[in-house]
Automatic annotation (TrEMBL):
It comes from Clostridium cylindrosporum DSM 605. PANTHER family: HTH-TYPE TRANSCRIPTIONAL REGULATOR XRE, TRACRIPTIONAL REGULATORY PROTEIN-RELATED-RELATED. It comes from the Bacteria. One of its GO terms (molecular function) is DNA binding. SUPFAM superfamilies: lambda repressor-like DNA-binding domains, Superoxide reductase-like. This is Helix-turn-helix family protein.
Amino acid sequence: MDCKKIGELIYKLRKAKNLTQKQVADEMNISDKTISKWERGQGCPDVSLLLELSEILEVSIERILSGEINTNDLVGGNMKKIKFYVCPKCNNLMTATGEASVSCCGKKLEPLIPEKFNDQHMLDIKPIEEELFVTSKHDMKKEHYISFIAYVRGDTVIISKQYPEWNLEFTFNKQKHGKLYFYCTEDGLFYQML
């Protein structure tokens, strides 16, 4: 750990929130001299204080310990760059359109890498008037099912949660070309072009 880098980051984050050392110290029930010591790089926060400090400064513990926050380039909201993250423990779904540090259930998640659909993982897409009706023959058992479908194009993302032991169905308005992403709980993320 680089206490100097950590201290500089704590200082910048505290200043950005318009907090004094005393205000941060009072919230944490410690001395403002302790905050001063950290900011001068003459010591690092104790592990037992990191969670509270991260909540006050609104930054992850990981960022505090690295001593830096890397900002993303402005991506202009292009949804085609969307990344999907699924927690292997609780199946929580998260998305990001740029680089992100995503964690759930105490573990850092990596973005899913989509594969092109195959015979076992394919969606049936039928046009009905102004809509597209999506179904699949994929099993929808508790231990193996498609948990979500997402329609993605440059300015739009529509996500439909799917549930085990229900028929897989998704209906959305016909729009320009895009991609359908779908996540199989056993085999990962797939995509299919429209």
